[in-house]
């Protein structure tokens, strides 16, 4: 049994390490936030192997690598940056890797993974030289707010889609889903539970909603009970070190574009996500994110480790917003998420009960919370309103955070100059305009999946 003195010592250690009092949070609140974030993003443990498996990679190895890269990323974010932000292999990057690079361009996955490794090295160097930090600090406040709101609407759209409330349509691209599908009602149930609890200001509303939806799914048979409770983690041998062994193949000119895409997309996906989450958590101070350099280094090092083990780029997860919404404010939230990913290696069968219909309500409600950033954008200034609007709608409509950022950054310098405010546009923003023109051109000429 834990003695009182031991408990006090543990609390004191956590206070010194994560500065809980300064951030007006508690150990219990951080643990709940970490658990909520984990539950919201645990799907990547199964989605990543499925997508990379289509590229010919061993699904079992990818499952283990996914968990371990998430553990590394979360621990780095916890102890280096002290942010409540979780890191794991990015969902968009793995799709680009499989469908555009491997299947679209016909590049073997071993060679493509070497490209990810090179991009990770460049990524880490840019972080060490503080280039990424300079770029993020140079982004105008209105665009940062637009990025936060855009990410909120994007993840709400992901939730609506995952929950079955919105489905694809040949006639209108998207349309309302069918209410005759039983699992869709799990999403509807979860939305109402969370919304009602939040309106009543009940602590931990999102997590309670997730548990309630899971319980309803199990009781009604809509969610299948797991066959077992414990299983050993598969070996990483099929993917470990493959990127390093195939490093010489990167000299192929075809790979240069691949490396550049992975580098730029990873750069701005994480930058946009970090800014959006920082806005939500109230971390931003004077339009700057404290310890941003450490957060970016955490992201870079986890991406480097992941590429060596055999997975596509890691990224800060927008699902961290679910943990932030229940009170997560420090690295203890990220540490908790990382520890749960560690346990997931042994209890992977239990994670099958957390379906997309269960996590969808959390994403939708968090989208509502993040969209509040819209109120602080200067909509009365047209030269700002247009870039902000394009940033916001670009993310969900292209299903890509980087595209939304690109639309805003391409129009902001031009419209500010047209409005006679050229002096307010710094050199970094002009440089980014050129970078995004190149990025969009390369993406346009690559084979489509």
Automatic annotation (TrEMBL):
Location(s) in or outside the cell: Cell membrane
One Gene Ontology molecular-function label: purine nucleobase transmembrane transporter activity
Protein keywords: Cell membrane, Membrane, Transmembrane, Transmembrane helix, Transport
Any matching Pfam family: Xan_ur_permease
Sections of the chain in a coiled coil: none
Family note: Belongs to the nucleobase:cation symporter-2 (NCS2) (TC 2.A.40) family. Azg-like subfamily.
Annotated transmembrane regions: 31-48, 60-81, 112-131, 143-167, 179-199, 206-223, 255-278, 330-351, 358-374, 386-415, 427-446
The keyword Glycoprotein belongs to this UniProt entry's keyword annotation: no
Record has Iron as a keyword: no
GO terms for cellular component: plasma membrane
Membrane topology, from the record: Multi-pass membrane protein
Protein name according to UniProt: Guanine permease
């Amino acid at each position: 049994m834990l003695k009182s003195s031991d408990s006090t010592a543990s609390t004191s250690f956590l206070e010194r390490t994560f500065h809980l009092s300064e951030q007006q949070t508690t150990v219990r609140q951080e643990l709940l936030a970490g658990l909520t974030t984990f539950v919201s993003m645990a799907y990547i443990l199964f989605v990543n192997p499925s997508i990379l498996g289509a590229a010919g990679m061993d699904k079992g190895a990818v499952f283990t690598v996914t968990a371990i890269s998430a553990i590394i990323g979360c621990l780095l974010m916890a102890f280096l940056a002290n942010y409540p932000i979780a890191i794991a292999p990015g969902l968009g990057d793995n799709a680009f890797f499989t469908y555009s690079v491997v299947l679209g361009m016909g590049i073997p996955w071993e060679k493509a993974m070497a490209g990810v490794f090179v991009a990770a090295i460049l990524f880490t160097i840019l972080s060490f030289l503080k280039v990424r930090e300079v770029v993020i600090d140079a982004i105008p406040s209105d665009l940062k707010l637009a990025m936060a709101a855009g990410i909120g609407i994007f993840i709400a759209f992901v939730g609506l889609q995952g929950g079955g409330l919105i489905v694809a349509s040949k006639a209108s691209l998207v349309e309302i889903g069918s209410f005759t599908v039983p699992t869709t009602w799990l999403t509807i149930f979860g939305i109402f539970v969370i919304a009602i609890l939040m309106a009543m200001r009940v602590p931990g509303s999102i997590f309670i909603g997730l548990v309630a939806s899971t319980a309803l799914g199990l009781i009604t048979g809509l969610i299948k009970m797991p066959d077992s409770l414990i299983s050993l983690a598969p070996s990483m041998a099929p993917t470990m070190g493959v990127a390093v062994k195939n490093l010489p193949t990167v000299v192929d000119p075809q790979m240069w574009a691949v490396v550049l895409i992975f580098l730029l997309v990873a750069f701005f996906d994480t930058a946009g996500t970090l800014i959006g989450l920082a806005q939500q958590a109230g971390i931003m101070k004077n339009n700057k994110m404290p310890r941003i350099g450490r957060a970016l280094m955490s992201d870079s090092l986890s991406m480097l480790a992941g590429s060596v083990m055999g997975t596509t780029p890691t990224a800060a997860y927008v699902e961290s917003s679910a943990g932030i919404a229940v009170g997560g404010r420090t690295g203890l939230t990220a540490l908790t998420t990382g520890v749960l990913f560690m346990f997931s290696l042994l209890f992977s069968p239990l994670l099958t009960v957390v379906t997309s219909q269960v996590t969808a309500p959390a994403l939708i409600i968090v989208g509502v919370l993040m969209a509040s950033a819209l109120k602080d954008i200067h909509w009365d200034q047209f030269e700002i309103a247009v870039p902000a609007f394009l940033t916001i709608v670009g993310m969900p409509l292209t299903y890509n955070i980087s595209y939304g950022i690109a639309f805003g950054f391409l129009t902001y310098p031009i419209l500010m100059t047209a409005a006679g405010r050229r002096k307010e546009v710094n050199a970094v923003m002009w440089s980014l305009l050129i970078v995004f023109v190149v990025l969009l051109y390369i993406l346009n000429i690559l084979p489509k999946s």
